[in-house]
Amino acid sequence: MKFVVTLIVAFFIFFNSQNPKNNIQGTWLMYKVIQNGKDVTLEHDPYHERFLILKSDCSFESGGRPFGKNTGKYEFNENENKLFLDSDTGPEDDSFWNVTIKSDTMFWRGYGSEWAEAFELIQVKKK
Fold this sequence. Notes:
Blueprint: H1 2-18, H2 20-24, E1 26-35, E2 38-39, H3 41-44, E3 51-54, E4 59-63, E5 70-77, E6 82-87, E7 95-102, E8 105-110, H4 114-117, E9 119-125
Antiparallel strand pairs: 1-2, 1-3, 1-9, 3-4, 4-5, 5-6, 6-7, 7-8, 8-9
């Protein structure tokens, strides 16, 4: 019986670690911002403190200078690896991203407009 319970627990842990939706949840620290192929990280994160928290209830919180705090909801389509951030500040701050997760690093590429497509973000999961 212990073997069966151990097997079920191991399967549950393996399944959750492989589920992209679970992998996207957590606290992410801004690592790099690329705009039109140019590294603009120092403009977007001059104090090295920007963060994004993706919560299990599909809400998010972001913060750090110079842009301050933001909250809202997110939708992650794990089949297409697409992330939508629906900001509480209004539609002008909403964003669409193609996402790739490799281990503790998340790569974002904007889509939906010429402005968005100019941006790539790299975020690292806080341990």
